[in-house]
Design a protein that fits this description.
This protein has 527 residues and is of the alpha/beta class. Among the domains are: 1-53, no CATH class; 73-230 and 275-409, Aldolase class I (TIM Barrel, Alpha-Beta Barrel). It has 22 helices and 17 strands. It has helices at residues 41-48, 127-131, 133-143, 153-156, 171-183, 197-202, 204-212, 237-245, 257-265, 282-295, 309-322, 341-346, 351-367, 384-393, 405-423, 428-431, 437-440, 444-451, 453-456, 461-483, 502-508, 518-526; strands spanning 76-78, 104-106, 112-114, 118-123, 146-149, 161-163, 166-169, 190-195, 216-221, 231-234, 249-251, 271-274, 299-304, 326-330, 374-378, 398-403, 497-499. The strands form five sheets. An eight-stranded parallel beta barrel has the order 4-5-8-9-13-14-15-16, surrounded by eight helices. It has a three-stranded antiparallel β-sheet with strand order 10-12-11, covered by helices on one side. Strand 13, helix 11 and strand 14 form a beta-alpha-beta unit. Helix 3 packs across helix 20 (461-483), helix 10 (282-295) packs across helix 11 and helix 11 (309-322) crosses helix 13 (351-367). The radius of gyration is 24 Å and the shape is globular.
Length: 527
């Protein structure tokens, strides 16, 4: 059995000529014929080279791997029960799903309050993030969840002002922060500003704290999609030169006369901007945390990706030593911007394995009386059942679930519907619900009641999509928790799920379903 698709994908706009006859080792057609125009990745690479590394069309898509991992969250089943209730009186008139409390508190002082345990993971300088920020930020604020501003936003801002190597003004970062702050409701949710190597050199987080009132900042050790720095593509020569002067790696060199001539001739149409990889060590990590606290950061998080298990141990240990508030663990396979396609599919620790290792490591620290930061599990979560399983697998350490592509999809879909309403060009699939926002979006009345008619009219349609998606997750998660008789997030435990295979049980430590409740079964039958 092959876990991967090797030589063709919708992500790279490539396909095999003999689609039914493919060699499972190379991914090439069984008969590779002289005269083929090269539709597969090998063939396309013969004339476009490194461009075929990346998913297409860049800037308009979010991307996730096609790899079928040996384990995923579908290999666990949620255990409901017919008796009792935890967190509420065991009374059928009181223990109803609408009574489930989904609020959570994050941070060492539990000062970050959320209505729903979701963090929208970092959306940085990519075009798809910028184009959909209104929906993400406003939707997150209305839903009372966290949204994260990703790396390179200031460095990519055409209007950024830099003095003595440090950012003193960034209209784009200010726009993103203020959008959330203006719509935040009753102090719920938060906006986080992330930084990579270049952002740290530019003093982005200090600027955000000092000038924009940001209270939570995030250090970054990569993501689940790749183990290199971030990339974007630039189709403007002058802008490519500017970014190189700001300290980014730009390929090919936009200041090389030969490269400039080739670009103007049309030999290639885009430059690549790359970020550097960080170098993690405990001393510099603790020092940076102290610098951020001295700069005024109230809460600090670390986002790390699917690096080897020893790096996971470093992340957990360093966060424990430095007293970091949140640790976000992103399993392999996902991405919202431009990541090398093969890397996205073939590197890193997948979510179930990564999260299971994290649970074991945190338990080791906790047993020694050491501080364990609040964990956020991320990596392919999109629905309420997956959220529940992630919260159960990592209990009691995991307090929240990270998502990126799913809320982005909700924002993009709703934005498209909003445009189609204005154009009076709704597809039949949507028009069956109505022709106005009030008819199509099921939460419109709730939002209007929450905000008042005047303020409601200003809500971007994309934000209505994110809010409505969160409303679906809220009700779905409440129903699952009610069935498991857990009426607040703090009561979710590892025995609320069971492994469906021996392999899942061995990797996660979650009991195999045929062995679940063994001792209790004996007591019941012998009683």
């Amino acid at each position: 059995m092959s876990f991967s698709r090797i030589n063709s994908s919708a992500a790279t706009l490539s396909k095999n000529r003999t689609e039914e006859s493919i060699n499972h080792l190379s991914g090439m057609c069984v008969t590779c014929i002289d005269g083929c125009i090269g539709m597969c990745e090998v063939g396309k690479s013969a004339y476009r080279g490194h461009e075929v590394l990346y998913p297409q069309p860049f800037g308009l898509i979010s991307t996730a791997s096609e790899k079928k991992y040996p384990l995923d969250y579908s290999h666990f089943s949620i255990m409901g029960t017919a008796t009792g209730a935890v967190g509420i009186e065991p009374d059928s008139d009181k223990a109803i799903f609408s009574s489930v409390n989904l609020e959570t508190r994050l941070g060492r002082d539990k000062g970050i309050k959320l209505r729903l345990p979701i963090i929208i993971s970092a959306m940085g300088s990519t075009r798809v993030a910028s184009m959909n920020w209104d929906g993400l930020a406003v939707g997150a604020a209305l839903a009372g969840i966290i949204v994260t501003i990703g790396e390179n936003v200031c460095g990519m801002d055409p209007q950024v002002e830099i003095k003595n190597g440090k950012v003193v003004k960034s209209p784009e970062l200010e726009r993103r922060v203020k959008l959330f702050q203006q719509w935040q409701m009753d102090g719920y949710g938060d906006v986080i500003v992330q930084a990579n190597v270049e952002d740290t050199n530019l003093g982005v987080q200090e600027y955000a704290i000092r000038e924009l009132g940001v209270r939570t900042v995030e250090m970054k050790w990569g993501q689940g999609a790749k183990d290199i720095g971030g990339e974007v593509k630039i189709n403007d020569l002058e802008r490519a030169v500017t970014l190189k002067k700001r300290g980014y790696i730009v390929l090919p060199d936009p200041e090389n006369p030969q490269v400039v001539e080739e670009f103007k001739r049309g030999a290639f149409k885009e430059f690549e901007r790359h970020s550097r990889v960080g170098m993690a060590d405990e001393e510099s990590f603790v020092r940076r945390v102290e610098e951020l606290r001295n700069a005024g950061a109230k809460y600090i998080s670390l986002k790390t990706g699917a690096y080897r298990p020893a790096d996971l141990a470093r992340a957990i240990k360093f966060c424990s030593v430095a007293g970091v508030d949140l640790l976000i663990l992103d399993g392999a396979g996902g991405g919202t911007g431009m990541s090398p396609w093969r890397m996205m599919n073939e590197w890193g620790v997948p979510p179930v394995e990564l999260h299971s290792l994290a649970y074991k490591m945190c338990s080791t620290l906790a047993a020694k009386g050491k501080y364990v930061p609040d964990l956020v599990f991320s990596g392919g979560f999109s629905m309420e059942d997956q959220m529940f399983k992630g919260l159960a697998l990592g209990a009691p350490y995991v307090k929240c679930i990270g998502m990126a592509r799913a809320p982005l999809a909700a924002a993009m879909v709703a934005k498209t519907i909003g445009r189609q309403i204005g154009e009076e060009n709704l597809p039949v699939y949507v028009e069956r619900f109505g022709r106005t926002r009030e008819q199509i979006f099921v939460t419109a009345a709730e939002l209007k009641n929450m905000l008042g008619s005047e303020k409601y009219a200003e809500v971007p349609t994309a934000a209505m999509g994110v809010f409505t998606y969160c409303e679906r997750l809220s009700q779905g998660l409440r129903q699952i928790m009610c069935g498991s008789r857990k009426f607040a997030l703090e009561y979710i435990s590892r025995d609320d799920i069971a492994s469906l295979t021996k392999e899942a049980a061995e990797a996660s430590g979650i009991t195999y379903i045929m062995e679940t409740d063994g001792e209790e079964i004996e007591r019941i039958l012998e009683g």
